[in-house]
Design brief:
- The complex is a heterodimer of chains A (about 375) and B (about 260).
- In chain A, about 40% of the residues lie in helices and about 10% in strands.
- In chain A, strand 7 and strand 8 form a beta hairpin.
- In chain A, helix 3 packs across helix 6, helix 9 runs antiparallel to helix 10 and helix 15 crosses helix 16.
- The radius of gyration of chain A is 26 Å and the shape is globular.
- The termini of chain A are far apart.
- The relative contact order of chain A is 0.14.
- By secondary structure, chain B is mainly alpha-helical.
- Chain B contains ten helices and four strands; from the N terminus they run H-H-H-H-H-H-H-E-E-E-E-H-H-H.
- In chain B, a hairpin with a 2-residue loop joins strand 2 and strand 3.
- Classes of the chains: A alpha/beta (about 375), B mainly alpha (about 260).
- At the A-B interface, helix 4 and helix 15 of A face helix 5 of B.
Amino acid sequence: MAVSQRNFIKLLKLTNLRQSSTAAQAMPVHEDIHQSFRTREDNPEYHGMQHINRIYTIPNNDLKMITCQGLITMYMKQFKTFAEASILVRKPAVEIISYLNQADYSKPVNKYVLYGEDGTGKTSTMLHTLHYAYTKGQIIVHVPWIRSWFDGPKETANSITKTNKIDLPFHAAAWLRNFKTQNQHILNKADIKLSATHEWSATENSAKDSSLMDMIDFGISRIKFASNVIIKLMSELKQASTSGKCKVLVAIDGYNALFSQQTNIFNDNKQMVPASQVSLTEAFLDITKSDWCNGQVIVTVDKMATKENAESHFPRYLLTNEGFDHLDPFLPISVENYTEDEFNTVIEYYKNRKWIRNLSSDGQKELQLLSGGNPYKLMEYCKHL
Amino acid sequence: MTSLQKLTTLARLLSLRQQSRTELVNATRNYSVFNPTYVKPVFRPEEQEALDQEEELKALSLLPIKPAFTDDTSSEFYDKQVNKFINFLMREGKKETARKALENTFENIKRIQLEKYNKATDPAEKEKIELDPRAILRQAIENSTPVLELLKMKKGGQTYQVINDTFHIQFEKLADDALFCCIKVPVPLTEKRAQFLGMNWLIQAGKDKQMKVHLSEKLAHELIDAANNEGRVIKKKQELYRQCEANRSYAHFRWF
């Protein structure tokens, strides 16, 4: 069929010539491509020096599982406002992750102590490593802030098994419940059995070779025994991981609270009880010993973790002699203020999230000088801008 | 000045001096520490630049200058109106507390607005959402500032006097209170008084809350509402205008 010249031109006009031609065509560019401050690598296992100073986003499902034990309100607020949970990939986190990747798990556990001035990002670094442990399918033993137990416990009770010890039944049961939701999928798969019979009272006991989950459920339903269940749970976890059934990551924030002399807990004589006399302390001291393997221990020491006045932020001072001897040998990892690159990245991120707008270079300089590159202070100064 | 005037001023000064001597026990120095020759400091960089361009800076540099107040900063984030609002918010001279309360309010405003922003899917709708808390405060004050006010006035006695002093109407004490009934006269406001009323209504609305709720939370909502021309403060202003409209027949009393 012959097409006249006129009709052919009409046809050309109707069809989109651009699509049939080989010329380069403008494509709608996704916004994310321009965001050089972000990294798309959301698996912390692969985070290395190439991702440093970039911001990575924790997937929502992962965040839910990581923060089962709760997180400082400040973080949750910020994640909600920004509609995503993003943290900066920083040197200490990458350092720990590289150690975790290369460690020999047949040797006794390595202990890492995060230390630094207030608000430098110890908890963020810990959150990063928690995400690592979650993606690796490890059992997470996480305490978000130990001091919250000692500061104003809801209820205290004298321990049934040990004299002079105080139980915190509510806190213990809550911790157990969160531990269960956080690690249920791994515990069910690993199918850990108890190595010995644990007797709770004259009528109640957890028999040998019964499931570990049953013991946890028992602790949750009978909160009177929850503290004791946690103590036994720690020893069972240690044995299970030593025998290779599971890997455990212990992450404790404000670890030096376990060695504090001042708490808000009082005994029957209305005398203040030091942290060492609280039964929960025993459990978390036990799991940070070096007598087990196939796991890792990450703790932070914090000036604000105890009621006592702290003059220095170094682990040698904060852990006191007792704590230092208990934790030794450990690897101290310093968390410091933002470098200039990190600072710029965070400002870029804040601008992207509309947290700050219309910030001139002078304003940025002012923020840098005011905050001194301290992450918490920067956040505080940006709050009202 | 005539000699008579000089004498009278001298006599008044002397009487004042006697008065102050009698009250020496609890004497406070209410006068400025600085000589009147001292000039006010210019602390904003843009004002300094303008002075420099007009070559007034050199003359100013030779004059004695008062020290700047602690909240007078050359910071980029300085805002005169925000400072004023903080001063109105302040109680018992606790400026730091007031400042923190307003900063927290700004934070809450940002969080509320950002949540709306993130929820909105339409880009045109997103653009409409104001995210700057200072802009919201400015808009809220502008919207809630009244133009008129009602002044109470006693009428019906034999002696009454209205002193019209640039719209500030004062009434002298009247002889026999029992005879008078109150009427309300609509009066235009000075800029200063209008700003005071607008800001104070916002603060009052922020303080009208339950004990458990923080001021910063309530105030944030009130400011956002007022910026959108809705809410209690705007209603209060409209109610006042309605009353002014009803009392318009008394308006002439302010010229007495």
